[in-house]
Design a protein that fits this description.
Elements (H helix, E strand, L loop, with lengths): L2 H4 L7 H4 L2 H21 L4 H7 L8 H28 L4 H21 L3 H29 L5 H30 L1 H21 L3 H11 L1 H4 L10 H14 L7 H8 L5 H5 L1 H7 L2 H32 L3 H12 L5 H11 L1 H18 L8 H19 L2 H18 L6 H34 L1 H22 L6 H8 L2
Helix pairs in contact: 3-7, 3-8, 3-9, 4-5, 5-7, 5-16, 5-22, 6-7, 6-9, 7-8, 7-22, 8-9, 8-17, 8-18, 8-21, 16-17, 16-21, 16-22, 16-23, 17-20, 18-19, 18-21, 19-20, 19-21, 19-23, 21-22, 21-24, 22-23
Length: 487
C-alpha cells in the first residue's frame, strides 16, 4: 500500500465516496464532460472558422474534417500511454485528474485561439484527454463492479458519453446564437469545475479496502472468501487471485495446452497483447465498437452542412438535428442490462438490424419539403436507436472475454494488465473510428454527395454486423460456462 495512504488520515464519508454508485457516477460525469466539450463546438466551428479564423467558405469542409481526424488520431496515440499507466500502480484518480487538466488546456485554446493551427492543437489536446478519460472510466467499472452487473454499469457510463454528444451540439449552437462565442466556453468551464470536484472526491476500491482493514484489523487476517467482506471487495480479490494463478488447478489442461504452442517474438515480448489479439471475440468486440463509433462520428462534418444547404438551417437547427441521433443513445444502461440477461450477440445484432435499413433510406432525402425534413428526423432517430444497442453489449462482451482469458492463462495474464491493455486497444480503435468516420464521410460527401455517403455507411454497418454475428458471445452465461468446461 502506498506510503501516502499510511501517512494520511481516514477520509471522510469513505463508504459513500468509495461506493460503486459514486465511482460509476464520477466515471459517468467524466465521459460526459469530455464528450460535451467535443460536441458543443461541432455546430459552432463552421461559423467560427469563417468569422474568427478567416477560413474561406469553400475550405470549411476541409478544416472540419481535419479537426475531427486530428481528435481521433490523438486518441489513438494517447491510448497506449494511458494503457501503460493503467497497467502500472499509477492511481486511477491521478490519471483522471491528469486527463481533466488536458481538457482544461484544450478549452482555453479553443476559447482564445483564432488561427486554424490553434484549433488543430486544441482538438489534439481533446483527443489526448479522451484517451485517458474513457480508458480509466472503463477500468474503474471493471475494478469496482461484480461481473454479473458489468453490462448495465458499463452501459450507464457509456451513456454519459452519449449524453454529452447529445446535449453538446444543440446547447453549443443555441448558446452561440444567443450569447456569442465566449459563452459556449464559459458553460464548458462550469461543467469542468463540477467534474473536478467529483474526481477529487472519489476514493478507489483499493484505497477503501485499506481503510476498512485499518478499522477492522481482524478482517484483514480472514480468508479471501470470508463472509465479512463486501461484494465489491470480494470481486476485486477474486480477480487478483485469478491473476496470481491461485485458481489454475482446475484449468490446468488449458494452461498446458497454451504452453505447448510455439512462442513467436510477439508472444515472448508482449504476451498479454499476443493473447488478446488472438481472441476472435476480443477482435469482434473492438471491431463492432469501431463500426458503431465511426457511424456516429461520420455525421459530425456532413450533417450541419447538409441541413444548411438542403433546408437552409443555421447553427441552432443543425445542432438540434444531432438530438435525433443522441437521444436514443441514452438507452445505453438499458441495452447493457439486456445484454446481461439475453447475451451481447442478440442485443447488438438487433441494433445492427435497425441501423442498416435506416442509413440506407437516408439517401431518399434529397430536397426541401416538410415531408423530407420529417423523414430525415425519423430515419436519424431510428439509426440512433439501432446504434444505441451496439456499444454497451460489445463492451460487456470484451470484459467477459478478457476475464475468461485471464482464467485460462493465469501464469501469463495479470487481470489488471489484461484489462488495461484490452481497453487501451478498444480506446485506440474508438479514436481511430473518430478519425476515419469524419474523414471518410467528409470526402464522400464532398466528392459524391449525400446519397452515396449514407449508402456507403449502411454497407459498413452491415460488415460490422457480420463480424459480430460470427464471433460475439451468444448468451449471458457464455463466459462462465466456458471457464467451467474449458472449451
Amino acid at each position: 500500500m502506498p506510503a501516502s495512504l499510511s501517512a494520511s488520515k481516514r477520509p471522510r464519508f469513505l463508504t459513500f465516496r468509495s461506493s460503486k454508485w459514486f465511482i460509476c457516477s464520477t466515471a459517468f460525469i467524466a465521459v460526459f464532460t469530455d464528450s460535451f466539450l467535443y460536441g458543443a463546438i461541432v455546430p459552432v466551428l463552421p461559423f467560427s472558422l469563417i468569422d474568427r479564423s478567416g477560413v474561406s467558405p469553400e475550405n470549411v469542409q476541409f478544416w472540419l474534417s481535419a479537426l475531427l481526424v486530428v481528435f481521433g488520431l490523438a486518441v489513438v496515440m494517447g491510448s497506449p500511454l494511458s494503457g501503460w499507466a493503467a497497467s502500472r500502480d499509477v492511481p486511477r484518480k491521478t490519471q483522471f485528474l491528469f486527463g481533466l487538466g488536458i481538457a482544461f488546456i484544450s478549452t482555453m485554446l479553443f476559447c482564445f485561439g483564432q488561427a486554424p493551427w490553434m484549433m488543430v492543437t486544441a482538438r489534439a489536446a481533446q483527443g489526448f484527454s479522451a484517451s485517458t478519460v474513457y480508458l480509466i472510466s472503463l477500468v474503474l467499472v471493471a475494478d469496482s463492479i461484480p461481473s454479473s452487473e458489468i453490462g448495465s454499469w458499463t452501459g450507464m457510463v457509456i451513456s454519459g458519453m452519449n449524453l454529452g454528444l447529445l446535449t453538446g451540439p444543440p446547447l453549443g449552437g443555441l448558446i452561440y446564437d444567443k450569447a456569442g462565442y465566449y459563452a459556449v466556453f464559459e458553460t464548458i468551464l462550469v461543467i469542468i469545475a463540477f467534474d473536478f470536484f467529483l474526481r477529487l472526491s472519489m476514493i478507489e476500491k483499493q484505497s477503501a479496502m485499506y481503510w476498512a482493514r485499518q478499522d477492522d484489523p481482524e478482517a484483514a487476517s480472514e480468508e479471501p472468501t470470508g463472509k465479512s467482506k463486501s461484494r465489491e471487495e470480494d470481486h476485486f480479490s477474486r480477480t487478483r487471485i485469478i491473476a496470481a494463478g491461485e485458481e489454475n488447478q482446475e484449468r490446468a489442461p488449458l494452461v498446458r495446452q497454451t504452453s505447448k504452442r510455439p512462442k513467436s517474438r510477439l508472444a515472448s515480448t508482449f504476451p498479454t497483447m499476443h493473447i488478446l489479439l488472438h481472441s476472435p471475440r476480443v477482435l469482434a468486440a473492438i471491431g463492432g465498437s469501431f463500426t458503431q463509433t465511426m457511424l456516429v462520428t461520420a455525421f459530425d462534418p456532413i450533417l450541419p452542412l447538409f441541413v444548411h444547404r438542403t433546408f437552409g438551417w443555421g447553427p441552432t437547427g443543425s445542432g438540434l438535428m444531432f438530438l435525433t441521433i443522441g437521444v436514443p443513445s441514452l438507452l445505453g444502461g438499458l441495452t447493457g442490462k439486456l445484454a446481461d440477461v439475453y447475451g451481447p450477440k442478440l442485443i447488438s445484432l438487433v441494433g445492427f438490424a435497425i441501423t442498416i435499413p435506416s442509413l440506407a433510406a437516408l439517401s431518399a432525402v434529397t430536397h426541401k419539403t416538410t415531408f423530407m425534413e420529417v423523414l430525415l428526423c425519423v430515419l436519424l432517430t431510428l439509426s440512433g436507436i439501432g446504434l444505441s444497442f451496439v456499444l454497451a453489449p460489445l463492451t460487456s462482451d470484451l470484459y467477459g472475454e478478457v476475464t475468461l482469458l485471464a482464467q485460462q492463462n493465469p501464469d501469463v495474464l495479470d487481470v489488471r494488465v489484461a484489462f488495461a491493455q484490452a481497453y487501451a486497444m478498444y480506446n485506440a480503435m474508438m479514436g481511430l473510428a473518430c478519425a476515419v468516420g469524419p474523414a471518410l464521410a467528409g470526402f464522400l460527401y464532398k466528392t459524391m454527395g449525400w446519397q452515396v455517403t449514407v449508402a456507403f455507411l449502411a454497407l459498413l454497418c452491415a460488415l460490422g454486423g457480420l463480424l459480430v454475428f460470427r464471433f460475439t458471445g451468444s448468451s449471458p452465461g457464455t463466459h462462465e460456462e466456458e471457464a467451467e468446461t474449458g472449451v
